[in-house]
Amino acid sequence: MTAELVRGQNHPLSRSRVEIRVSAGTPVLALALLGDEEGRPAGPAALAHPGARQQPGLEVPGEVTDRHRFAVDLDAVGAEVHRLGMLLVLPSGGPIGFGSVPASHISVADPAGEELAGFTLTGLSTETAVVALELYRRQGAWKVRAVGQGYADGLGALLADAGLAAPAAGELAATALAAVPRPTTAPRPTTAPVSGTPYTGTPGPAPSAASGAADATLGQGQGLPAGSGPGTGPATGLGPRPAHGRHTGPGTGSSGSGTGPDAGPGPAAGAGGEGLGRPEGNGAVAGPPTIDYAHPRRSRTVPPPAAPQAPPAAPGEPPRPVAGDATGWSMDERLYNQVWGMFEDLARAVAAYRSAVEFADARLDRELDQALSDPRHRLGGSGNAARDAALARREELTDQARSVLDRDLAQLTAEVEVVEPALPAAYARWDNPVWHAHRVPGPDGDAPMALRLGELHLPECPGLQIPMLVRLPLERGLWIDNGRTGSEAAMAMDTDRLRRAALDMAVAHAARMLAVQPGGGLGVHVIDAAGAGSAALEPLVRSGVLAAPPAAGPAGVARTLEELTRRVDLVQMAVRAGAPEDLPPDLDTGDQLLIVHDFPHGFDDRAVTRLRYLADEGPRVGVHLLMVADRDEASAYGPLLDPLWRSLMRLSPVPDNHLADPWVGHAWTFEPSLPPPGSAVLDRVLAGVAEARRSPGR
Q1: Residue 145's beta-bridge partner residues?
Q2: What are the tens digits of pLDDT across the range 547-596?
Q3: Bias regions of kind Low complexity — which residues (predicted)?
Q4: Are residues 520 and 407 part of one domain?
Q5: Is pTM beyond 0.90 here?
Q6: CATH number at residue 138
């Protein structure tokens, strides 16, 4: 039986030959640090890394990936070795910290594969290196201890804290990271990254801070930092976007050294989300292998049709935007890729502006320091003249950067104005006229590629909003946070209004998913144990689109979870056995959505375990989770539920900057997509779903 450890807990090891297993939420480097009785490493040779993988009794992996397995022979390690620290390190240019990706899990197994002890790393934030587990010798026997000690300053800080001198620790960390094999750079893919699932997140989204605020990464990959620093030239801007919908303009906020967020070939999709390609050295972003993000049910037997061409622009003017100018086999796919192209362009344009401003500020500080330190400037007023000249140069640089940003924003705004009206219902705002003529696709229709959850914007341009799209079928569940902790907008809102807004948001998402599913064939189940959400759930109940009335009380919670758990178990067994025809005839094999309101009311330990199981295993077989809950209210369960929260993409019913992009890690403000106040669009949509179910052959 596996011992699931918590931080600081130890467990005896009954085997001398063990296997270390790592399952991370993002590609990581797995290292081992050998220590003496006091835990001090014996110099550089004490670290097993890709450039020196072998040590007596163990050999660490040499690649960066999200899953590792390597063997350790505790009888073969040196007699002077009393501790083996298992380290996880984010590669250079990777996510902004372990808190921005789904929680990693590390375990110790025997040679037969049975896990002896495991530990899930929770409670991390901006740490990029962590001591996950420690195998240690005590009175001739070996034990394992869950450590979970992270370091925001990376591997060098970890090694220095372990006892290496600071210069040696920094050099050893640089050597270890430089030895990581680099993949061959590939061109950018012609389609956009997968959203949602850290993101990312995704985007997911997976809590931590990007620029002090973002706690989930959008996209299948994780947040990629900007370049290593600006040079001295002006910003160059976006430039024209090619047909595939991605920016390939020449530079970032400052040219000079050319290592800003657009200096490299660019990423492609996780969080997270969960893939985007890993960033590679010195701030440049290296491209990943080409990945096909095509819709799994769309035909690929013929080449994609040519994208529509924009009308020619006048000399000296930027290209005129046109909806659907990205590559794809359908207009839906082109628009999806184009939206992601706009999202990336805005992220990089703002990163360029911020980089230029930071450079201007740094140069101003340097020039002022030089002026004040020169005794000649203290006499005759020359110091004031030097200060005024430095301020003028700073103003000139920032004005130039802002003019480039404004030009890029104008170009993107024009594109949004063209693209937004052309979006299909699955991607469109609720006030888009497309909903007035919308009809539920027939049973033989195609499911959409993605679903709109809301809008995203940055503080430099709050009026420019980019649709936030998440790929279908959902690879991660959604969590709509109805708590007030961690959000200024939520803190300023009445608790009852906040909870009603969160559930209204969940109902709107469910209605949208039903409306775009062929035949309206999505089974929607609701758990509302205390009945507190009856008013907000009324549109779903009244229209008759629910699979059953909302489950109330502990008995209703247990019954609903048992039914969905049974479906997941049976479908998984049928898939593994390759015998889907053996499924019971009464089993609904269509996609299912479970909405859980007011968790953990009405949940006992068994129900919590089943909910975690559905969150982990359900998406693979078409059972998706949408939770409306306050994480603080579930804190009584302790760390048991941390993996659950981290596996979901957190959304907020009020504007909140908790999401990060997978390119430069900006903190984006998310605003939910809701029907306009007083609109009847939700009732019309649900009535259309009910009609489609009554007349499936129409």
Answers
A1: 10, 134
A2: 999 999 999 999 999 999 999 999 988 888 888 777 888 888 889 999 99
A3: 180-219
A4: no
A5: no
A6: 2.60.60.30
Contact at 8 Å (CB) between 532 and 628? no
Identity at 632, one-letter amino acid code: D
10 is a domain residue: yes
For the record, the structure tokens of 263 come out as: 């200096």
Do residues 136 and 270 both lie within one domain? no
Sheet holding 450-457, edge to edge: 216-217, 656-660, 667-672, 450-457, 466-471
* Within-domain flag for 444: no
Structure confidence by residue, pLDDT tens digits, 342-351: 998 999 889 8
Residues near 288 by beta carbon (within 8 Å), at least 6 away in sequence: 183, 186, 267, 268, 275, 276, 277, 278
Whether residue 125 is contained in a domain is answered as yes
- Domain residues for the domain of 62 are 3-178
Query: Both tokens of residue 103?
Result: 């929680």
Closest listed residue to residue 247, CA positions, set 326, 169, 137: 326
89 and 234 share one domain: no
**663 domain residue, yes or no:** no
Confidence of residue 317 (pLDDT cuts 50, 70, 90): low
Q: How far apart are CA 450 and CA 141, in angstroms?
A: 54
Q: For 473, phi and psi rounded to 5 degrees?
A: -65, 155
For 375, phi then psi, to 5°, come to -60, -25
The string of pLDDT tens digits covering residues 73-105 is: 999 998 889 999 999 999 887 788 898 888 899
- Per the DSSP assignment, residues forming a β-bridge with 594 are 525, 625
How far apart are the C-alpha atoms of 478 and 502, rounded to whole Å? 12
Q: In 153-276, where do the E strands start and end?
A: 216-217
Strands 592-599 and 523-528: parallel
CB 349 within 8 A of CB 403: no
415: pLDDT confidence band, cut at 50, 70 and 90?
very high
Instruction: Between 295 and 565, name the one with better pLDDT.
Output: 565
Residue matched to tokens 């079928």:
473
List the end-to-end C-alpha distance of the chain, in Å, as a whole number. Answer: 54
pLDDT of the residue at 484:
79
The mean pLDDT value of the chain amounts to 79
Q: Are 272 and 343 within one domain?
A: yes
Question: Distance (Å, rounded) from C-alpha 675 to C-alpha 683?
Answer: 10
**Of 4-13, 220-229, 423-432, where does mean pLDDT reach its minimum?**
220-229
Both structure tokens of 441: 């696709």
**Rounded to an integer, what distance in angstroms lies between the CA atom of residue 46 and that of residue 55?**
8
Same domain, 417 and 554: no
